[in-house]
Amino acid sequence: MRILSGMQPSGPMHIGNYLGAVKQWVATQNHDAFYCVVDLHALTLQIDPEKLREQTTDLLASYLACGLDPDVCTVFLQSQVPYHAQLNWLLECVATYGELSRMTQFKEKAQRQEGYRVGLLTYPVLMAGDILLYEAAEVPVGDDQRQHLELARVIAERFNNRYGKTFTVPVAVQPKVAARVMDLQEPTRKMSKSVSSPLGSIYLFDTPADIERKVRKAVTDTDNEVRFDWEHKPGLSNLLEMYSSFSGDKPDDVAGRYSRYGDLKGDLATLIVESLAPIQRRYRELLADPGELHAVAMRGSLKAAEVAGPVYHRAARAMGLL
Ligand code: AMP
Ligand code: TRP
Q1: The CATH number of the domain where 238 resides is what?
Q2: Residue 196 above 80 pLDDT?
Q3: Nearest protein CA to atom 17 of ligand 1, as residue
Q4: Cβ neighbours for 140, distance < 8 A, ≥ 6 positions apart
Q5: Protein residue whose Cα sits closest to atom 1 of ligand 2
């Protein structure tokens, strides 16, 4: 099954990224699966060049530490495969301004700053290209990317209708639980790399003490009944989904085992610490040899280009380029 997904090197991974996306990537990796660090996407917001280099290496280490195996799947760097930027232009001449300006994420991010970059508007087109270049059938992502995925499908279908069948129309795949992990302090807002209260996000490489503290302080409600109910108990339901995702038990079953919030929080903190410990260990080992990480990305990018090249040229020819 051809799979593609990616993540921006815009900061350290949090457990929303892990449970919503990377955990699925690891579970479904195969010789036909491609996972990229989408460094071109990270340029849509202000980022110091040195910081971008650091965070890119860091994210490569995080992918491998979480269990992506470069001998099984292809791990690569978006900017090392020039077809992404090239197909982006072709698809910008297929997508419409109206479609892009209606994207929720664009409206939210644009609102927060003056003089936002054109790339912030056109970013879902670059993302559509990432997917279409690999003829991906499935794209495992968290819930916040659903709208972008829908746009990628629209662009693919429009291209195929206008220029002849060129692209595979992709499908988004989301985990059954934890597709949208919420901020621990504001459980009506998603956990995010960019906007977050200091105790709102658990990062993959947080210390056990920090994880414990963040879980203990997570905002819940005051009626003290342990029940899985997003409408009335978003804070508690968020904790139950995290528990469920790490343990494999259903959220309702987990809720049935507890009568006190404090007990659930204590066990959840232990579960997270224990689940992340081997990932944290591997991460530290991998970061000790950044040269090897870059070599992995370079090998992956050469493999990725072999797949993306013919698809790019097919699209260019279909549009009338010589
Ligand atoms: P990003 O950090 O925006 O590049 O997102 C990388 C991946 O993590 C995408 O598949 C997102 O859908 C997923 N993701 C980001 N935040 C969350 C969250 N709070 N809950 C679940 N998945 C998330
Ligand atoms: N836009 C995605 C995000 O912010 C990252 C991304 C870029 C992506 N290209 C992709 C995800 C292709 C899946 C497939 O999370």
Answers
A1: 1.10.240.10
A2: no
A3: 16
A4: 3, 5, 21, 24, 25, 28, 172, 173, 174, 175
A5: 127
